[in-house]
Write a structure and sequence with these properties.
The protein is 38% helix and 16% strand. The chain is α/β, with parallel strands linked by helices and 211 residues long. It has one domain (3-203): Spore Coat Polysaccharide Biosynthesis Protein SpsA, Chain A (Alpha-Beta Complex). A seven-stranded mixed beta sheet has the order 3-2-1-4-6-5-7, sandwiched between helices.
Length: 211
Amino acid sequence: MQWTLVIPLKPLSRAKSRLSDTAADGVRPGLALAFAQDTVSAALACGAVADVAVVTDDELAARELAALGARIVPDAPANGLNAALAHGAAVVRESRPRAPVAALNADLPALRPAELAVVLSAAAHFPRAFLADAAGVGTTLLAAGPEGELQPDFGVDSRSRHRASGATELLLSGVDSVRQDVDTGDDLRAALALGVGPYTAAVSAGLLSAP
């Protein structure tokens, strides 16, 4: 099964505010872009992924991510994360009505194509499925097969909400890179320990002086 991934990205100027204790205001936009570049690059290198649609209105991000091979979908709803994801999935299915789609966070800088393939292979067995984040409270991936609707409900405690909505939780080991999103300095340290992609490595060099 070949998946289309829908990746939402808010304007870089407003991204990653919780990293303020680690990265200055002038650094965070570049860090958010680097996370997205490494996420998109790894996703496009995954054999289970047919294409990637990034939902964003940020001109710089759109240009840089399109250069990597992503399709850019303007955030027409402009009404937050879940509306952007639903819109992106709808745009994908306008041209491919039975396309399996998966929402993926844009802040997975340590993402490994092989681990993403494992998650998507497991998700293919269910109408809807999701993977919890490393903290165990959020969601990093929500998948809907050809007969399923995405029904995204990301945000605080999204793990419990996606489970309550009927999506199957994927209880997998060995897929840490697909779980490790980055919202805080500790998250960034954890991602760096896993091994981040080249964009994040370049921007974060010297950023963290403490282990």
